[in-house]
Design goal:
four-stranded antiparallel beta sheet; Immunoglobulin-like; 6 domains; rod-shaped; mainly beta
Length: 558
C-alpha cells in the first residue's frame, strides 16, 4: 500500500510506501510501525489499519498497489481508486434515543449509539441515569464505518431522568452525550386507616392518610376537618418509592355521624382523594340493674329495673334473657341533655333459676353493653310446727317433741336446731308429690322446775332467713312426791293428835283418882313412909296414913 502525498500516482518518483510486510523499514516515517493489515486477504477481505492516528495524517490520499508480477496476464491499475484520510479533532458525539416512560412507574427503553472506524479495537460504550438490563450491538454501516449501540430497558422511578451516554474510543478519547427525560409523577395508592371509622363521641381517635408515590417533591396532604391536631411525615421504601403520610387526631361529635372524613393529596400535576364514612358511636356512660341483691322468693313476682345512661340520639334497645315475662320500657332526658333509657321486668322465679344470671343487654348501633345480677331463689317454707302443742312436762320425766317443716327447697338442705342443748335429737325427711319435702326433728326433752313457763323453740335455718316454732313448757311435779308430802303431813297431825289424846287421858285419869280419894276421905293422916329399897312392896290394908297425906296435898293443889 502506498501513499502519494497530495498528488496522483502518475508521478512515479513520489510514490511512498505506508505498508510493506516484506520491507517494513521502507515505510515512510509518518506511518512506520503504525500500519497493519486487518482482515483475511485470502478471503478478499483486506483493510489498512492505522494505529495512533494523528492530525498529521489528515488529508493523506491512500491507494492499494499490487505488484503486477504477482497478478499474471493482466494488470489492474489500483491507483485509480484512492482514499483520503479525514482526521477529526474529536469523535462524533453518541446519540441517545428514549422510548416510553411518560409516567413514573412506566417501562422505558434508552438506546445509546456511537460511530467508529476501528473494528480492530471497539470503543467502550456506557450508559448512566437509568437502571435496567442491557444489550450491546456492533454493526457495520458502510465500508470503514461501524456503529456500536447499547440498549437499556428499565422502569421510570423519578419525575426527571438525566441520561448520560459515553463512548471511549481506541486511543483514550471519550465523548459523552446527555439527555433529560421528564415523567409525570403518578401516585401508586392513597389510603386512610383505619378503614372502619368507628368513633366514640367526645373520644379522640387517630386516622392516618398514606400516599404511596415516586415523586421527588412530596405531595401536600389536607383533611376536610379543620382545627384538629395534624402531624406529617414521609419515609422511603425500596426501589425509591416513598410514602408520605398525615395523622389527624379526630374528635367526633353527634353531628358527624354519617359524614365523610376526606384526605386529599395535592401533586404538581393534580390531586387525588380518598375518604371513610364516619360512624359516631354515642357514649353509654353506665348500665345497671336494680336491685343489685337479686333475692327472689319462688313463685313470688319481683320487679327489676335496667337503666342505661347514654348520650345517643337514637335510644338503645333493651332486652332481657328471660322471655314471657311482663316488661315495660321508657326514657327520660336529664338536665345535661344526656338520657336514661330503662326497662322494667316483673320476674317470677322458679327453683331451677337459683344461681343463674338475670341479664340486661342494651343494643346500640355501634355495639352492645351488658350487665347482670345473680339470682338467689329463696324456696318456699310452707309451715313449721311442734307437736304436741300442749307442752305438759313432768319434772324429771322424758318427753318427745317433734318439729315438722314443710318446704320446697331443692338446692339447699335447711337445718333444724332446738334451743335446748345436750338432749337427744333425731332427724329424718321424706319427699311429697310436687317435689315438696318434709323434714322432721325429734327431741327427747327432760324438764326441770326452772323450765316451767319457758319456751321450747324449733328453728329452721335457710340461706335466706330463719323460721321458728315454739310451745310454752308446763312443768308438773311427780305424783309420788306429792303423796310423800301429804303422808308426812298426815303423820305429823296424827302424832300431834295422839300426843294430845295421851295427855288428855293422863289428866282424866288423874282426875278420876283424885275423885276416888276424896270419897274415901276420913282416914287419919299419917306421915308418909319411904319404903326401903331392899324391901319388897307390900300391900296395905286398913288405914294408910301416907296415902292420905298425899291425897290431902293433892286436894290442896286443887
Amino acid at each position: 500500500m502506498i501513499v502519494k502525498g497530495n498528488n496522483y500516482p502518475q508521478n512515479q518518483d513520489t510514490i511512498l510506501l505506508i505498508k510493506n510486510p516484506w520491507y517494513p523499514d521502507y515505510v515512510i516515517e509518518k506511518f512506520r510501525w503504525k500500519t497493519d493489515l486487518y482482515g483475511d486477504p485470502s478471503s478478499w477481505d483486506c483493510s489498512l489499519l492505522i494505529k495512533n492516528l494523528k492530525q498529521s495524517h489528515h488529508g493523506e490520499k491512500l491507494y492499494t498497489w499490487i505488484d503486477p508480477e504477482n497478478v499474471g496476464k493482466s494488470t489492474y491499475a489500483f491507483y485509480d481508486v484512492t482514499s483520503t484520510i479525514q482526521v477529526d479533532a474529536s469523535p462524533q458525539l453518541p446519540s441517545i434515543s428514549i422510548f416510553g416512560g411518560e409516567r413514573t412507574g412506566d417501562a422505558i427503553t434508552v438506546v445509546c449509539s456511537g460511530f467508529h472506524t476501528c473494528p480492530y479495537s471497539k470503543p467502550t460504550i456506557t450508559l448512566n441515569g437509568l437502571e435496567g438490563s442491557d444489550q450491546i450491538k456492533d454493526e457495520s454501516i458502510k465500508d470503514g464505518l461501524w456503529k456500536i449501540t447499547r440498549t437499556r430497558k428499565g422502569v421510570v422511578k423519578t419525575e426527571r431522568l438525566n441520561i448520560q451516554c459515553s463512548v471511549r474510543h481506541y486511543g483514550g478519547i471519550t465523548v459523552t452525550a446527555t439527555k433529560d427525560k421528564s415523567a409525570k409523577c403518578v401516585h401508586q395508592k392513597i389510603t386512610i386507616e383505619p378503614e372502619l371509622a368507628d368513633v366514640t363521641e367526645g373520644v379522640a381517635k387517630i386516622f392516618t392518610c398514606s400516599v404511596y408515590h415516586s415523586c421527588q417533591k412530596e405531595p401536600t396532604i389536607t383533611w376536610n376537618y379543620e382545627n384538629m391536631p395534624i402531624t406529617k411525615g414521609s419515609k422511603t421504601h425500596s426501589g425509591l418509592n416513598r410514602v408520605t403520610y398525615s395523622h389527624i387526631t379526630f374528635l367526633g361529635a353527634k353531628d358527624d355521624h354519617g359524614k365523610k372524613l376526606i384526605c386529599t393529596a395535592n401533586f404538581s400535576g393534580g390531586k387525588v382523594t380518598t375518604s371513610v364514612v364516619l360512624h359516631v358511636q354515642c357514649v353509654h356512660y353506665n348500665i345497671s340493674i336494680e336491685p343489685e341483691l337479686a333475692d327472689v322468693t319462688e313463685g313470688v313476682a319481683k320487679n327489676f329495673t335496667c337503666s342505661v345512661y347514654h348520650s345517643c340520639q337514637k335510644e338503645p334497645t333493651i332486652t332481657w334473657n328471660y322471655e314471657n315475662m311482663p316488661i315495660t320500657k321508657g326514657s327520660k332526658t336529664r338536665s345535661d341533655l344526656n338520657q336514661v333509657t330503662y326497662s322494667d321486668i316483673t320476674f317470677l322465679g322458679a327453683k331451677e333459676d337459683h344461681g343463674k344470671k338475670l341479664t340486661c343487654t342494651a343494643n346500640f348501633s355501634g355495639g352492645n353493653i351488658i350487665t347482670s345480677v345473680v339470682l338467689c331463689i329463696q324456696c318456699v317454707h310452707h309451715n313449721i310446727s311442734i307437736e304436741p302443742e300442749l307442752a305438759d312436762v313432768t319434772e324429771g320425766v322424758a318427753k318427745n317433741f317433734t318439729c315438722t317443716l314443710y318446704h320446697s327447697c331443692q338446692n339447699e338442705n335447711p337445718t333444724i336446731t332446738w334451743n335446748y342443748e345436750n338432749m337427744q335429737v333425731t332427724e329424718w325427711n321424706k319427699t311429697l308429690s310436687g317435689l315438696d319435702q318434709i323434714i322432721y326433728s325429734s327431741i327427747t326433752f327432760l324438764g326441770a322446775k326452772e323450765d316451767h313457763g319457758k319456751k321450747l323453740l324449733c328453728t329452721a335455718k335457710f340461706s335466706g332467713r330463719d323460721i321458728t316454732a315454739s310451745v310454752v313448757l308446763n312443768v308438773k311435779y311427780p305424783v309420788i312426791s306429792g303423796l310423800k308430802t301429804i303422808g308426812l303431813y298426815i303423820l305429823t297431825l296424827s302424832l300431834v293428835f295422839l300426843l294430845a289424846c295421851i295427855l288428855a287421858g293422863v289428866i282424866i285419869y288423874k282426875k278420876q283418882q283424885r275423885s276416888k280419894d276424896a270419897v274415901s276421905g276420913n282416914k287419919p293422916f299419917s306421915k308418909p313412909r319411904m319404903p326401903s329399897p331392899k324391901s319388897e312392896p307390900k300391900s296395905y290394908s286398913g288405914h294408910d296414913s301416907d296415902a292420905e297425906y298425899t291425897n290431902m296435898d293433892e286436894l290442896k293443889k286443887y
